[in-house]
Amino acid sequence: MSAPAIDVRGLVRKFGAFTAVDDVTFAVRAGEVFGFLGANGAGKSTTIRMLCGLLKPTAGTAVVGGIDVSVDPEGVKRRIGYMSQRFSLYEQLTVDENIRFFGGVYGLRGERLEARRRFVLDLADLRGRESMLARALPGGWRQRLALGCAILHEPSIVFLDEPTGGVDPLSRRRFWDLIGDLSRRGTTVLVTTHYLDEAEHCHRIAIMHAGRLAALGTNAELKGVFASRPIIEVQTDNPVAVMDALDARPEVEKTSIFGTAVHAVLRGAATDPSVVTDALARASLQVRSVTRVAPSLEDVFLDVVERQAEVA
Amino acid sequence: MRALAAVARKELRQILRDRLTLMILLFIPALFLLLYGYALNFDIRNIRLAVQDQDGSSRSRALVSSFVNSGYFDLVASGHDPAAHARRIDANDVRAVLVIPDGFGRRIETRRPVRVQVVIDGDNANTATTVSAYAQAIVADFAAREAAPVGIAGPAGAPLVLEPRIWYNPQLRSTLFLVPGLIAYIAMITAVISTALSIVREKERGTMEQVRMSPLDPVSYVLGKTLPYLALSFASALIIILVAMALFDLPMRGSWLLLSLAIGLFLVGAQAQGLLISTVAETQQVAFQLALLSSFLPTFILSGFIFPISSMPAVVQAITHIVPARYFIVALRAIILKGADLVTFWQDFLALGIFAVIALGLASLRLSREWA
User: Fold this and answer.
1) Is the CB of B45 inside 8 Å of chain A's CB atoms?
2) Could you tell me whether strands A6-15 and A18-28 are parallel, antiparallel, or unpaired per DSSP bridges?
3) Angle at which helices B342-371 and B256-280 pack, to 10 degrees?
4) Per-residue CA distances from B340 to A38, B170, B246, B255, B324 (Å)
5) Does residue A215 have a pLDDT over 50?
6) Cβ distance of A105 and B215 shorter than 8 Å
7) pLDDT(B370) > 60
8) This model's pTM is above 0.90
9) Of A237, A50, A265, A65, nearest to A153 (Cα)?
10) Rounded CA separation A136/A114 (Å)
11) CA-to-CA distance for B169 and B250, rounded, in angstroms?
12) Is the CB of B206 less than 8 angstroms away from the CB of A86?
């Protein structure tokens, strides 16, 4: 196996007394789509900024594209692409002017700039809109243009910091298709998000909580924590009463609310799911349905965060 | 170089597209000049004058006419009784009394020295000084025309023959004196504000972070961003000067090269100040206020633009040494009004250069800390 595209060991970043990133270790393979999950303030953006050479680590090492970010941050910058949730384009400039500006910043010119410009226009579906002001573009287009500008110089590693904020679901879906394309062409993508459904598109997912790496694995691996803990979903109009009734049963490990449903996690694979219907009947609670469901990433996320909180 | 050009091209496009900024940079300064040029006028007119003509000759009447025709004096009373004139001054009916001695006309014809007296109400020292200067100029002018040694006598009638010669601005028009100050004032404000805002705007919108993630070095970024504004501010300063030449008869007696050099040095310092502000301020609002305060107040109050530095308290005089506009105004007045050589004001150039270097140094120090 070749060297990892990103190799992070014991990375720490402190701001005064506050530890934003606390001893984080992970590695990302070349061509992998690596998802970073976590609440706001969990340390995702700080980690990314260190990996991009924008912020010096307090301790630990991060090697990106074979370069140690503390040693040669400028070298890292040449090899990576970065795009943030703000789709930082120049609003008073046209689509074409934005592309040419970022091309100039990355030192592209002549044939190569022209080829990459066409590539970005195709990628963002902006052919024929070259002279539109960036300000006038709808969110989804701006997002794709921002991505295009970030990968003009064909970086082998791309960092996307909450790239889908404020964009409609259809555009989000198209955007993830683009990420899939990049990955298939061998580009390594590290993406942060707090949309849990998006994380399902990632090859592997890291969950950050309070600056620490709380869990890391593929979708299936992460969901494996529920292998011996069946999840029962109860559709109800009265979730609070249902949770109270279920929490009173020793067979029920915990309950959490999911919109109009309650998820109850049972202790042990052998536990009979009928304990739930039983408990509801005894409390004479009316429910619409009781079904055993497969764990979602949201179940995993809540579980990880809760356990992390217990440890702390 | 390529990256610098890309940034400069982008910045110029942004400015050209933003009509408002362009207007503010290019034409508002000239508009300012019109407003201030007409409103800020320290000339005193309609000075109420009484005449005590003890000679009554055609020569003495000619001198009185010179006063009235100058446009500054209105003749409101005449008579031979000094006490009556004194009462008029006490009652604020007249501000000045012109006393022409007996034998005035004869002495002129025989080319013997003669003195007239001007009694001026000194209740407002500034006005009195101005009135005195006008009177001296008129008398000197009259003497020149008559080719006679006419002077103004001191209050005690001491035999003192003044020969006031006002150079460079013989009509003592305050506008000519003010225009160089206005150029400094306006150029300072536009250069500091536009530079500070253009960088803080990128911070606010997040484009700065995007650019920082690229291999672009801070020097190319800053130069690329500030050079277009330097060019525009320069054009703006030249427009002001041309407008002043057209509307206020501003003479341009010196070398355009020296003038350009002075403006360039001054603008670089002002932009460095704007840059420094942009490293401190996080929002455009804060940047605007910092820029306005740090450019407008010192330039207006402490530069000698309006208030003469020589009449400030010693402590304040000391402070004016760090106000770049102070040196710029001296250099501008020297070049525009006097056509002076670099020899006479090289210290002011040096001071401007020192200010620019220090401001640039501080700004790059702060910037490199923020950039890394």
Assistant:
1) no
2) antiparallel
3) 30
4) 69, 17, 22, 8, 20
5) yes
6) yes
7) yes
8) no
9) A65
10) 24
11) 10
12) yes
Considering CB atoms only, which of A78, A80, A88 is closest to B210?
A88
E-assigned strands of A32-173? 33-37, 59-64, 67-68, 80-84, 157-161
Does B2 contact A at CB distance below 8 Å? Answer: yes
pLDDT band at A167 (very low <50, low <70, confident <90, very high): confident
A139 and A124 in contact (C-beta within 8 Å)? no
Do the beta carbons of residue A168 and residue A21 sit within 8 Å? no
pLDDT classification of A47: cutoffs 50, 70, 90: very high
Amino acid at A53: G
3-state helix, strand, coil in chain B (%, to 5): 70, 10, 25
First to last CA, chain A: 36
pLDDT, position B155: 46
DSSP string, B221-250: HHHHHHHHHHHHHHHHHHHHHHHHHHHS--
Residue A120 to residue B174: CA distance in whole angstroms: 61
A100 and B215: CB-CB below 8 Å? Answer: no
Place of tokens 């300012």: B32
CB contact under 8 A, A91 and B205: yes
* Rounded-to-10 torsion of CA B351, B352, B355, B358: -100
Does A107 reach chain B within 8 Å, measured CB to CB? yes
- Tokens (6 digits) for A208: 């950050």
**Distance (Å) from the alpha carbon of B22 to chain A's nearest alpha carbon:** 14
pLDDT (tens digit per residue) in B183-215? 888 788 888 988 899 899 999 888 888 888 888
Geometric angle at alpha carbon B74, from B71 and B80, rounded to 5°: 135
- Alpha carbons within 13 angstroms on the beta-carbon side of residue A208 total 29
d(CA B198, CA B291): 12
Residue A266 neighbours by CB distance under 10 Å:
24
Cβ atoms of residues A266 and A253 within 8 Å: yes
Whether B215 sits inside 8 A of A106 (CB atoms) is: yes
DSSP string, A122-133: HHTT-TT-TTSB
Question: How many whole angstroms separate alpha carbon A201 and alpha carbon A182?
Answer: 13
For residue A54, the chain B residues in CB contact (below 8 A) are 209, 212-213
Sheet holding B73-78, edge to edge: B73-78, B47-53, B96-100, B114-120, B150-153
Q: What is the pLDDT of residues B230-274, one digit of tens each?
A: 998 898 888 888 888 888 778 888 899 999 999 999 999 999 999
Tell me the nearest-neighbour CA distance from A72 into chain B, angstroms: 11
Whether residue B207 and residue A105 make contact (CB cut-off 8 A), yes or no, is no
* Alpha-carbon span A223 to A234, nearest angstrom: 20
Its ipTM equals 0.79
Distance of CA A74 to the CA centre of its chain: 25
pLDDT digits (tens, 9 = 90+) for A122-157: 988 899 999 999 999 888 889 899 999 999 999 999
